[in-house]
Design goal:
266 residues, alpha+beta, 13 helices, 16% strand, Nuclear Transport Factor 2, Chain: A, 2 domains
């Protein structure tokens, strides 16, 4: 994830310190807890590196590890998984931190998108799109994601129209019965509820609103944004299942917004 032995050591040390300050009895799944903490530490380091426009000091992990004959050793297998090669690392360094993290966690370590989304504070669908976009860039392909954008746009447009008109029945009709609405910490500070469950409850949140919101492509999937002057202030990351909106993630954190691949329609 970092392609820097010294930064990797720092990340492990910081994660260990966080673990030492945590009541281990309160951790249900230590492996998942560590994956989340290490990933978030790495994400912070990648963002900090990007803000300072620093380049990593490349050091091939296998060269540092030295010869090793036991191919079944877990530690060596982890080092081998990290040894993605200098050419690939150059491509990885062109990715936004969130896309890089999503790709490495899923394609190298097989972490499920539900868990990756939780780590990034994004929906599983958004995490999948981030990894997919990273994969296409690494493979040298610029082809579009094979999704029915027109169909997604129809669902989102119907949601926005019902929201603006205040038609509660129409809103409920376009929402999945078990829809989940989640807001990040910044959105909660702005007055949003951290979580709302169910079509009727979510419909009430949006009824009579979304006047200034507009549809947009968010990481290759149709979503919604409030972007006064063309600059996104809030993004609603939409997950559509069977032509129903099944999940909405409200993103207002400026760091997260900066990493979104956002294209406004019209």
């Amino acid at each position: 994830m970092l392609d820097s032995a010294s930064e990797a050591d720092d990340a492990v040390q910081e994660s260990w310190l966080r673990l030492s300050r945590t009541d281990s009895d309160s951790i249900d799944n230590l492996g998942a807890w560590l994956t989340t903490v290490v990933s978030r530490v790495c994400l912070d380091m990648l963002r900090s590196r990007a803000s300072r426009r620093e380049e990593p000091q490349y050091a091939h992990p296998l060269e540092e590890a030295g010869p090793h004959d036991d191919g079944g050793d877990p530690e060596y297998e982890a080092i081998l998984a990290d040894a993605l090669g200098p050419a690939l690392q150059v491509v990885l360094d062109t990715l936004a931190p969130a896309a890089r993290l999503a790709f490495v966690l899923h394609d190298v370590f097989a972490v499920p998108f539900d868990e990756i989304g939780s780590i990034l504070g994004r929906s599983p669908n958004a995490a999948k799109q981030l990894a997919s976009r990273a994969r296409r860039r690494i493979q040298g392909s610029s082809s579009s994601v094979d999704v029915d954008v027109s169909r997604q746009r129809t669902v989102v447009d119907a949601f926005l129209a019902a929201s603006r008109s205040g038609d509660l029945d129409e809103l409920v009709a376009v929402l999945h019965p078990d829809i989940v609405l989640r807001a990040d910490a910044t959105a909660v500070q702005m007055g949003s509820l951290p979580e709302v469950l169910g079509a009727t409850a979510v419909a009430k949140v949006f009824s009579g609103r979304a006047v200034a919101a507009q549809p947009a492509l968010v990481d290759g999937v149709v979503g919604i944004t409030w972007a006064p002057g063309g600059r996104a202030k809030v993004v609603w990351d939409i997950t559509i299942t069977d032509d129903k909106i099944a999940r909405i993630d409200m993103v207002a954190d400026t760091g997260s917004l900066a990493e979104l691949d956002l294209v406004l329609f019209g």
